[in-house]
Amino acid sequence: MRKRILYAEADYGAMVRKNGYFVDKTEYIEKIEQVNNPVFLRPRRFGKSLFCRMLECYYNIRQKDEFEELFGHTWIGKNPTPLHNSFFVLHLDFSVIETGSMEKIERSFNHVCNLKIRTMVGLNRKWFQDRLAIDPEFGESASENLQKVLDFITFEDLPPLYVIIDEYDNFANQLIAGHKDRLYRQLMSNEGFLKTFFKTMKEGRKTSAIHNVFITGVLPVTIDELASGFNIGTFITLEPEFENMLGFTRSEADHLLDEIWQDYGFDPENRHEVDALIRNQYNGYRFIRPDGEALYNSTMLMYFLNYLTRYGQIPEYLTDLNLKTDLMWVKRITGSNPQHTEEFVTQLSTLNRIAYDKVFLVSKFNMSQFFEKGFFPVSFYYLGMLTKKDDFYLKLPNLNMRKIFVEYFNELHRIDVSTRHTEYMRQFISDLNLDSLFAGYWEQYVSQLPEAVFQQVNENFYRTTFYELCSRYLSRWFIWNVERSYPKGRTDLEFVGKFHESFAGIRMVIEFKYFSNAEFAKFKKSIADFELRKEDTEQIAGYAEGLKTEYPEAKVTLHVIYCFGNQGYRVFDL
């Protein structure tokens, strides 16, 4: 029976029992056992919750009889550690804690944690034997009930507790992003309920009533603020050994697609197209080494594969709507200073790079710095919107993120992208005339740009905004490659007809060249008299040579687009 794509499934046991595709990350369980109180941060949709659930299944003493079923097919199942199924597991998810007043936050925190503590005790009644009463309605705090459990474990010499905290910073981040500084300071006060809870866990580790504490989240702000209450955490987020613990490597994604192509009987001729598409859209994350192996956003890739396996087609829209919430983070973080916001978003839209201070990645990271201009790059690095380009710059990792930032750029500059472009986009589907398509873009989009923007534009800006606009209207028929590598270099932009639509096999390769107004003046000729340069012809012909070798049946057309500051453009069809 062929497997299923279980998109957004965060229950490891359900994934195994429903015969879902699974990228085996279980070897990291053994590595984590060597770390005291590991803290591992990654952006949203990178599989943190699924990994936490996998740890729960592995260590839960109640699931000992299920070990072979759940892990027999995995690396850890073939190489189990002595600690498997040895602990009571308290698995907390802080994302469900409500915000509001401090009283409401504390009440919600206690209620959520106490329910989990009571459930853990109840499910393990074989050991607790109804001798420990945990009732969320009694008004006792989560810290008090956790301490009762730890004392009972110590007194009765029971197996220790393994604590997993998922989304540890979720409700705190909502206060930070909402600029609720007073509430956040109250939350992090030394005598507050949150630090008290972490102090209780620290004491449990000291007495060995807690075997280990595994913490995941997105931002390091809260863990730094909690240091006085829980200064025993080991920050493994930036350690090379754990770089690939979440997200899919290229080889893991290739193996997954191999399985899917075999199970679903997809045409092998379409595989190259899909490989290129997912690398452009979902790959490109480098969290530690700029020259290391790039990672796929695993949940976003599964979103794509879920559609592909259900319908046998590439989805019209390649970005999960859940990703749009990332734009809200951009607005919240940068919104405190409109000038800095515009500079930040415009620089990424034009240059796709921004300088960062590596010290900020590993130094104390507190709430007051979160909204400072110098910290924007690091904040967005942890949020998964930027990744390492080299040791000095961060960049947008893939087309998904480029699209989000161009959308925000358009919003900041009040550029209309929704009403005035229909006719020339519709005409392109009839005649595939790139000259007319770019003319529409220039007349209807570029004409809206403020004069100040033209001091910063370059070929990357024209290429990216042209792609983003076309993707709004033409995604039913085309996908796009940006900076795709071939033996003789990287193409700027490619229109690729989807294999299941009317333009299947068509590839329009575009090379962009940009000249500022000052550079263009040196040519001493008008735009109409500007001629195609020999070196540009040779350059794009080199790309085409590699493309035709890889796709011998493709119908390839070559185009060079010259952009002259804000004065105009020329499109040449080779």
Account of the protein in words:
The protein is an alpha/beta fold. The chain has helices at residues 12-17, 27-32, 48-59, 67-71, 75-78, 102-123, 125-128, 142-156, 170-177, 181-187, 193-207, 221-225, 250-264, 271-282, 298-311, 325-334, 338-350, 358-362, 376-382, 399-412, 422-431, 434-444, 459-474, 517-521, 534-550, and strands at 38-41, 88-93, 161-166, 210-217, 234-235, 354-355, 387-388, 393-395, 478-482, 485-486, 489-490, 493-497, 506-515, 555-564, 568-573. The protein has 3 domains: 24-242, Rossmann fold (3-Layer(aba) Sandwich); 250-318, no CATH class; 451-574, Trna Endonuclease, Chain: A, domain 1 (3-Layer(aba) Sandwich), CATH 3.40.1350. It has a 5-stranded parallel β-sheet. A 5-stranded mixed β-sheet has the order 9-12-13-14-15, with helices on both faces. It is built from 25 helices and 15 strands.
